[in-house]
Structures are given as C-alpha cells and as structure tokens.
C-alpha cells in the first residue's frame, strides 16, 4: 500500500513538473512573439535610417570623386599645354637620334655583308679544293683497281 502511494505521489509530482514546464514554455513563446512584434517596426525604422545615411554617404563620395576627376583633368590639360611647347624639340631630338643609330646600323650591316661574302667565298673555295682532291683520290683508286684487275687477269691467263 505504501509503495503504491509512493508511486502515485511520484507520478503526481512528475505531471506537475511537466505542467510547470509546459506553462513556462508558453510564457517564453508569448514573450518572444511579443518581443518580435515590438522589434519589427524598430528594425524597419533603423533600416530606413541606415539606407538614407548610406545614400547620403554615397552621394557625398560620388561628388568628391567627380571633383577629384575634374581637378586631375585640369592638371592633365595644363601638363599637355606645357609639354606641347617641347614637341618640336622632341621631334628634332628623335630625328637626330634615329639618324645616328641608322648610320651605325648601316655600317654594322655593311661589315656583316662583307664578312658574309668573304666567308661564302672561302667556303666555296674550300669545297672546290675538297671536290678536286676527292676526284683525284677517286681517279687514282680506280686506276689502281684497274691495274690490279689487269694483273689478276694476266695471272689467270
């Protein structure tokens, strides 16, 4: 009997605990929902304020960028007008430099052509001598072979 009462008491405490946890869960849900409902308009207003602030900042940076570009363009035009006075001197300098380099190039090219022609003549002469020597060696070898053949024929006879 006592054991049954203890089991019954334990089950009753367990149900009460579950009931308390369920009620606490409902309260937390209610508070979270209420908090979200309160936060939504605040988040929207904060978003709008941030968007307006970002737009103003972007416009300000865009104006600064445009003025900077305009100043850079003005400076570039000043440099161009200042440097345009040097254009004739630059062209004259380039022409002199190209002319001097062209003469150096032509001299080196002429020397190269002369060396090339000389080397060709030397190689051609060398080949002529080599061919002449080969023909002479071939002639003597063939002559010797012919003599050898004749001797062999006479020996056979």
UniProtKB/TrEMBL annotation:
Leader sequence residues: none
Coiled-coil positions: 3-34, 59-149
Keywords: Coiled coil
GO annotation, biological process: formation of cytoplasmic translation initiation complex; translation reinitiation
UniProt keyword Coiled coil present: yes
Keyword Coiled coil (UniProt): yes
A GO CC annotation given for this chain: eukaryotic translation initiation factor 3 complex, eIF3m
One Gene Ontology term of the molecular function aspect: mRNA binding
PANTHER family listed in its UniProt record: EUKARYOTIC TRANSLATION INITIATION FACTOR 3 SUBUNIT A (PTHR14005:SF0), EUKARYOTIC TRANSLATION INITIATION FACTOR 3, THETA SUBUNIT (PTHR14005)
Name of this protein: EIF3A factor
UniProt lineage: Eukaryota, Metazoa, Chordata, Craniata, Vertebrata
